[in-house]
User: Fold this.
Amino acid sequence: MKKQKSSILRWLILAALGLALIIGHNLAQDIIGKILAAGLVLSALSGIIAWWKEKSKSPDALASLLGNILICLVGLWIFFNTQRFISIINVVIGVVIILIGAQNLYRGYKFGARLHMILAAIAILLGIIVVFYNAATSLPVICQGIGLIYTAAVGYLGDRNKK
Assistant:
């Protein structure tokens, strides 16, 4: 039950972060960067704590741990280099969405869940769009928010179907 709670917390944090990006897309970019960094670190730490409690040595658990460590490091980098991050925000958020989508794609493949694999592939596609979409409007931030919410929903469904 503890693992399920920490898993739900992880996906809720990602979804809340996506919603904050959609609602606050007109906020100062520095504030958006700090909020994003905090959300990524909290989400990744939740995944790391879930692994620590379980201490699974299976390849998928270790891959998930590695992904969470990378996401946590990206979040910390964003927090301490917010101005630099703002210039590459689309790439970083897109890569995070792609990483989480890849984890979900693998999970769907492992459990033979075709629908989950399709949804994860769509999340990866959203991440690719966010990486390559460059505009001076608030649309990229809204797309990032939608991508994070979608990725959280797919991850939650994957965790729920895994049990």
The chain has a mean pLDDT of 80. The helical segments are 2-23, 29-54, 59-80, 82-87, 89-110, 114-132, 139-162. The first helix runs from residue 2 to 23. The chain has one domain: 2-162.
